[in-house]
Hints:
Order of helices and strands: EEHEEHH
CATH architecture of the domain at 16-101: Roll
Number of strands: 4
Radius of gyration: 17 Å
Number of helices: 3
CATH class of the domain at 16-101: Alpha Beta
Shape: globular
CATH topology of the domain at 16-101: Ubiquitin-like (UB roll)
CATH superfamily of the domain at 16-101: Phosphatidylinositol 3-kinase Catalytic Subunit, Chain A, domain 1
Distance between the termini: 45 Å
Helix content: 25-40%
Structural class: alpha+beta
Amino acid sequence: MLNYKQKKNQPLKGNRFLISVTVLGSSGPIRFVVNEEDLVGAVIQTVLKSYAREGRFPALGSNLNDFLLYCPISETEALSPWDNIGSVGVRNFMLCRKPQTETAIDVEKSPSVSRKATGSWKTWFNNALTLKISSH
């Protein structure tokens, strides 16, 4: 597991700003202040800790390597854990679990069973909106 903690005795550099991170499947965003020099990996770690501390569902776990942070304007590309959060230029993000990969062994064992591919958060969001509109 990668370690993204910054040392507490280091002076803060750069600007601080409020970000909002929506966790896919959760009831609402998590908001907190970050330094523009903070790494994306550190932001993911902070979101996971805050999410668990607040007792939100569904439970996510604490392994930051299982998650990707997306920027709504970059559509399909996840942010690199080594990028600075301030380099993106936005304040709203989406945290999603990494897609599960199917191994060739699993395909050989059950060739007649096909798994539905996991879509992006935008596909999930559009489907949720469609269901909500059709139920009213």
